[in-house]
Amino acid sequence: MHRSGAAMAWNVFKFCTALRGLGSIMILLVLGVVGVTYYAVVVTNYFPALQSGSSFESSLVALFVLLLFHCLLAMLLWSYFSVVLTDPGSVPPNWRPSVDEERGETEPLAGSEYNGAVMGVQQLTAIGEPTNTRVRYCRKCNQLKPPRCHHCSVCGRCILKMDHHCVWVVNCVGALNYKYFLLFLFYTFLETTVVTLSLLPHFIAFFTDGEIPGTPGSLATTFLAFVLNLAFALSVLGFLIMHISLVAGNTTTIEAYEKKTTPKWRYDLGRRKNFEQVFGTDKKYWFIPGYSEEDLRRMPALQGLEYPSKPDLDSQEF
């Protein structure tokens, strides 16, 4: 039994190491798909159609497709690199709870109280005894964990409001970049849908008897781009629907798994407030990867350390 557990731990370690090693490969893969798509839509089909000016209608359609394609591509890449380059949120050094739950005080724990709480949690965790559910401790990081914080084995640290580790963005998705990840999914779905629809007539032409203009290389690129974008549009749609439901319930992928038997959720404050905890209250910033200074100043949830909850469900903690 012990050898089996050790082998499992070793396999998980190798898997996490492999995920870390993907790194730039996944970024290059994403950029490669973007490059193939750009060549098929812009270089091979719609820019030549705009230049030829065979008819006013075809030129207008080509111009519309090119403008929409470039606008969505810019938002997609902005959102993507925002997820890649933004730290998802780490536990600050010597972080301590700002509230003593047992006494109902709102002042941070004093030094002696804080050290005692840490030692108590460490001791109970070490012997397998149940601990105070409001005090969570990470044995790998040797520190207290804020609410909704989880340890990522790939990143090797605790992540604030961790949702999952995404190989496509080579980063964890957490409190500080979850909005950017959702926008990446949103703009990816829109972009791949636009590309699929714009290349559909060219794809259908492959199965007709008429002669298809273009070189073998350009035709192959168009065919490949259509198939790739159709596949991405369908798969991303599923992920987008799932995350929309998670945002509506103010939960994460990890929390949805952990609380699958819990009928009520302490952080579910209603769809609008749940939405604002991810996207902020300023509507001008809802569709761009960023927040207004006002929202960052007055909404602690955007910082990943404090979250408003239902008073009658305060005993819950994940």
From TrEMBL:
Q: Does the keyword Transcription regulation apply?
A: no
Note the topology in the membrane. Answer: Multi-pass membrane protein
Catalysed reaction(s)?
A: L-cysteinyl-[protein] + hexadecanoyl-CoA = S-hexadecanoyl-L-cysteinyl-[protein] + CoA
What is its subcellular localisation? Membrane
Q: What class of enzyme is it?
A: transferase
GO MF term set: protein-cysteine S-palmitoyltransferase activity
UniProt xrefs under PROSITE patterns: DHHC
List the InterPro entries hit by this protein, alphabetically: Palmitoyltrfase_DHHC, PFA4/ZDH16/20/ERF2-like
Q: Which Pfam families match?
A: DHHC
Q: Which domain of life is it from?
A: Eukaryota
Q: Which family does it belong to?
A: Belongs to the DHHC palmitoyltransferase family.
The molecule here is called S-acyltransferase
Q: Which organism is it from?
A: Acorus calamus
Lineage at the top is: Eukaryota, Viridiplantae, Streptophyta, Embryophyta, Tracheophyta
